[in-house]
Amino acid sequence: MRRNYDLNAELTSLRRDLHRMPELSGEEVETATRMANWLRDCAADEVIVGMGGHGVAGIFDSGEPGPTVLFRCELDALPIHETGTPEWRSAIPGKGHMCGHDGHMAIMCGLARRLQQKRPARGRIILLYQPAEETGEGARGVIADPRFASIRPDFAFGLHNLPGMSAGHVGLRAGSFCFASEGMEIHLAGRTSHAAHPEDGISPAAATIDLAARLPKLPSELGLTPEDGLVTLSHMRLGESAFGIAPGESWIMATIRARTDEVQERLMAAARDMAARAAAAAGLGIDISTAERFAACFNDDDATDILREAVTETGTPCVELDGPFRWSEDFGLFGSVCPSAFFVLGAGEDHPQLHNPDYDFPDEIIPVALAVFERVARGRCG
């Protein structure tokens, strides 16, 4: 490495370049190429591309027996038009890194630089740049990729920045960390008629209104509190935009969330049953589809202790969280592969919220996360 090298400055520049050129889930071609080139420049022993879509994995192998430890970040941006005005604002209208994945990638690239400077003494370290987190497809695709077997980890770690928490503070807890979630679309089909003679058709209006009122109450009907599960209506449409037609179709979209995968399955089954009964009672056809499925994120006790130790050793302020977050993270699927743990990193108490159009990742917290991840890596692999 060259003298007078400023890693923080390099990572800040990288993060801002990534922010300028966001790519949506499943479209992360240029971003993935840049990350693969970065890993090669950091002398990774192997770089795997095209994992589960556009995923990239960098392998730093000591050649000695030891654990395989995986660190994961995300490649994708969001279909949100940026309204903030930094010099590095998005150059692509309607697309933006409004969730901070550009910052997460910069942190991972910093870890690659650290591993270039000092190789692991035992085992392997895997740096995974995962695609399509925002749709819930990325982790599933990576794990299903046949090449994942060759890098199957003994531990997996990840993070997400969190506006509303003091900048540079870590939030951590064992057990439930993020809710499971899945989107459900219910299509009810009847028969249109002239608006002057609605009795000649089969209108889905009453059933649609009934479902719209009852679906959000479903968790309480199952004895669940909002801290265990919730149903949120996200979109509805009844018939066509015309005064002369009594409607023959309707669509209801809802997001269903739960603290655990088991409760999530109960809610999904109950929602399907409720919709089917409403359709049958009204003489309507029904079609139900789902999308954006996220497993619950559950922090393993041992993996959480490893993170907590790293946070303590780096002198990073830490908050023990009272309960899980209602938002979802597809990192949870890695818990089905190995012991895993996830933490949040404060982006600032007054920072714009995730998915806000003026959100921008705070560069000053990059070194904090990098220090924690490197401490974990050195503690496991030397």
From TrEMBL:
A molecular-function term among this protein's GO annotations: hydrolase activity
Keywords, alphabetical: Hydrolase, Manganese, Metal-binding
A Pfam match: Peptidase_M20
Cofactor remark: The Mn(2+) ion enhances activity.
Gene3D superfamilies: 3.30.70.360, Zn peptidases (3.40.630.10)
Record InterPro entries: Amidohydrolase, Bact_exopeptidase_dim_dom, Peptidase_M20
Keyword Manganese: yes
Chain residues that bind Mn(2+): 99, 101, 134, 160, 355
Superkingdom of the source species: Bacteria
Keyword set includes DNA damage: no
Cofactor(s) in the UniProt record: Mn(2+)
Name of the protein this chain belongs to: Amidohydrolase
